[in-house]
Amino acid sequence: MMPKALGGQIVMEKTPRYFVTVDTPARVHAMSQDIKLIVVVRDPVTRAISDYTQIISKTPEIPPFERLAFKNHTTGQIDSLWSPLWIGLYAQHMERWLAWFPRAQIHLVSGERLISDPAGELGKVQDFLGLQRIVTDKHFYFNKTKGFPCLKKPEGSSKPHCLGKTKGRTHVSIDPEVVQKLRDFYRPHNQRFYQMAGQDFGWQ
Ligand SMILES: Nc1ncnc2c1ncn2[C@@H]1O[C@H](COP(=O)(O)OS(=O)(=O)O)[C@@H](OP(=O)(O)O)[C@H]1O
């Protein structure tokens, strides 16, 4: 379903689910072997809480995060198959992609640095895509109220553009003990992911 393009044009498509869907690497490989892949990753614990915040905003009747995160609350056994937690097992997902694509064809973007240093992170994306570095520091300003960077002037518009209301929303508050258990759970997975990535994302 990718649109046709002229020589010199780059076609882009974004579907977060691709990174974690088991059959996708093989299907993408069958479509194009020299495709460039970009993945935005953030601290998996914050990611899970953000995910849950999104789910509960649509289905308020679901059980609390603390209940869904554990298979057995007494033994503290984490339910790693619960989607918000399973998605954060980046090393497992990355492994499936690396069975089909060389590491150099996959570029990892830090979700945290995308907020703290958008121009730096986008500079690396432009290099990865073989583009001239057109987007730089001068294209962004930091909106303190939102806690997010905004574009000073998007193409074709004279007004600044900030991300929508749901970006940078307040997360559901989670029992700190549960957060600590999740940090302990993810630590070895994160370490394995840093090794595959060749970079330390600095998650706690
Ligand atoms: N450009 C950019 N830079 C940094 N962070 C970003 C960006 N776009 C989305 N986000 C954050 O990703 C979280 C999920 O947002 P999404 O737009 O993907 O989906 S949704 O809002 O949950 O439907 C959500 O995280 P939280 O706000 O922490 O819940 C978004 O704020």
From TrEMBL:
One protein family per Pfam: Sulfotransfer_1
Keywords (A to Z) from UniProt: Disulfide bond, Glycoprotein, Transferase
Domain spans labelled Sulfotransferase: 16-189
Record: residues binding 3'-phosphoadenylyl sulfate: 42, 50, 167-171
Cystine pairings recorded for this chain: 150-162
Name of the top EC class for this enzyme: transferase
Keyword Nucleotide-binding among UniProt keywords: no
Keyword Lipid metabolism: no
GO molecular function, one term: [heparan sulfate]-glucosamine 3-sulfotransferase activity
InterPro entries according to UniProt: NST/OST (IPR037359), P-loop_NTPase (IPR027417), Sulfotransferase_dom (IPR000863)
Secretion signal, residue range per the UniProt entry: none
EC numbers on record: 2.8.2.-
Family to which the UniProt record says this protein belongs: Belongs to the sulfotransferase 1 family.
Name the record gives this protein: Sulfotransferase
Source organism of this protein record: Oryzias sinensis (Chinese medaka)
Lineage: Eukaryota, Metazoa, Chordata, Craniata, Vertebrata
